């Protein structure tokens, strides 16, 4: 439930329009989770949970190394809670995969429009179990448990007609709120925490703990909020069979992306790792357009991003590495850069590397 918070040439002209639209939409798609085979050997979840070794199938390793960022495995500080959560709710969540599909399809389409990871749909699962008529003691309502003032802030009606119970309208509002929170915190676990307790509470916890890592600041948050985040992680594991971008802290995400270098031949110095960041992008971005806009050396960019133009031209996602101080520039200009890249492609002035 929600507490309170601030919150979230004849044919060519036609081809140009279609290509621009395709690239523009493709460029707005969000990050996706990396999944693994749950490895249950054909057993149902409820059966597999009875095996003392079953739950380890959700992780990349049989043993957990608490001294290392988990990246692909569950954070050791969440293991006990998530195990118990899946034991209690796994069967219900497994059934929801089937009957909830129409709702999840709707969520996927809307979240993609806002550039959010589709896995954020699981927030609705732990908020309301996808129920439209759920009302909390605090007055939050609908499948996304929006508070009245937040709903009104994003253009929803609250009263005798309550748009919060409308799946389509409330999902648009929730997506706006989540996007707003991510812009502020740049960390999906903190987005989940702030969605539950409010951005103010999360900022207060950051100040008190001196950390932006959820696992460090969690004890400065209400118990309900701490558990809310862990329920989200547990739900993600049930539905996806693994963790993903939305179940990692920002620091863990950075480490994971650094490990996902396009070429194994790229060797980065410690200084390069510390001074750069990796952004997941797609769309027909062009390396020359990007480096000109960011005032980056093209040779350096190409070393960090081998196969950049080729990979994006194939319609695939790319983990682009740039200097940290260039990220705000790219984020503020990314749609403009995408359009310029497509224009350069159409006019035949692009340079592929």
Percent strand equals under 5%
What spatial form do the alpha-carbon principal axes imply?
globular
List unreliable stretches of 5+ residues. 1-72
Task: Report the major sheet.
Answer: 2 strands, antiparallel
The number of distinct structural domains comes to 2
CATH third-level topology of the largest domain: Lysozyme
Order of helices and strands: HHHHHHHHHHHHHEHHHEH
Q: Indicate the CATH architecture of the largest domain.
A: Orthogonal Bundle
How many helices? The count is 17
Number of strands: 2
Oligomer: single chain
Helix percentage = 40-55%
Question: How far apart are the first and last residues' alpha carbons, in Å?
Answer: 50 Å
Biggest sheet: strand arrangement: 1-2
Layout of helices and strands:
Layout: H1 10-27, H2 45-48, H3 79-99, H4 101-113, H5 122-128, H6 148-153, H7 167-185, H8 188-197, H9 199-209, H10 214-217, H11 223-240, H12 250-259, H13 270-275, E1 276-281, H14 287-294, H15 298-304, H16 308-313, E2 318-323, H17 327-347
Antiparallel strand pairs: 1-2
Helix pairs in contact: 1-17, 3-11, 4-7, 5-11, 7-8, 8-9, 8-11, 14-17
